[in-house]
Write a structure and sequence with these properties.
mainly alpha, three-stranded antiparallel sheet, 10 helices, about 70% helix, about 5% strand
């Protein structure tokens, strides 16, 4: 179970998106945010259950103030729904949301990654290799960690464009997609297919083949959406 922000990459992604070199200060609310967020991604909190903030605060050993801040951020990300006079519950997965997220990714991410190929420096390429290796090491039985590493890999392919607004939008879509990545990878064999597709994307990026990378990413995102629409994600 997650207990810290040290390796999940949420805050560092933001720093790099703003131009790199940022000093990230992790508050208590940041740590609570990361812990609860990873539990949501992993499906450890039932979608039909109201979250008891008193019990959660006691479990984490924190006061209600940073907990409320973290919960408000999770609501802003679309992971929690406010329930009048009752707090929050997990937002359900839906085919409609999956369609929305992945359709927007298709419009932005492949083209951004293709542009990034020609703008990347040695440090960018090293970061992409490191992200791929981290994704490769992620245990298949910890799909929440795999989803986080998957996001970091995809972000490493677009970050070299150094366009903060575009990066921020793509990152938000990637964050919203993480629960769907977990759902997508649950059937046997999907992780092996994803690994091969990511390897091809890495090779195209490092070879400077922007046209091939754009085509690979487009196909990768489309196939994931097709799988999700094929019945993995229930229609709410």
């Amino acid at each position: 179970m997650a207990t810290a922000l040290s390796s999940d990459g949420f805050a560092p992604d933001e720093g790099r998106a703003l131009g790199g070199g940022a000093i990230v200060v992790q508050t208590l609310a940041d740590r609570i945010f990361a812990i609860v967020r990873e539990r949501i991604i992993a499906g450890m909190i039932p979608a039909d259950r109201t979250i008891r903030q008193d019990a959660l605060a006691a479990e984490l050993g924190v006061s209600k103030i940073p907990l409320r801040e973290a919960m408000a951020r999770l609501e802003q990300e679309g992971l929690l729904l406010g329930v009048a006079n009752r707090g929050y519950r997990i937002a359900p997965l839906s085919a409609a949301e999956a369609e929305d997220i992945y359709s927007l990714r298709l419009k932005l991410e492949p083209a951004a990654a293709a542009r990034a190929v020609g703008m990347a420096d040695d440090a960018d390429r090293a970061s992409l290799i490191a992200a791929f290796e981290a994704l490769d090491r992620a245990a298949s039985d910890d799909l929440a960690r795999v989803a986080i590493c998957n996001r970091q890999f995809h972000m490493a392919m677009v970050r070299p464009i150094r366009q903060p607004l575009t990066i921020q939008i793509i990152r938000q879509l990637a964050l919203l997609a993480e629960r769907y990545v977990v759902a997508h990878l649950q059937p046997a064999g999907r992780d092996a297919r994803a690994h091969l597709e990511h390897r091809e994307q890495l090779d195209a990026f490092l070879a400077g083949d922007a046209v091939r990378l754009q085509a690979l990413l487009d196909a990768h995102i489309r196939s994931t959406l097709a799988d999700l629409k094929g019945g993995i994600v229930p229609v709410d």
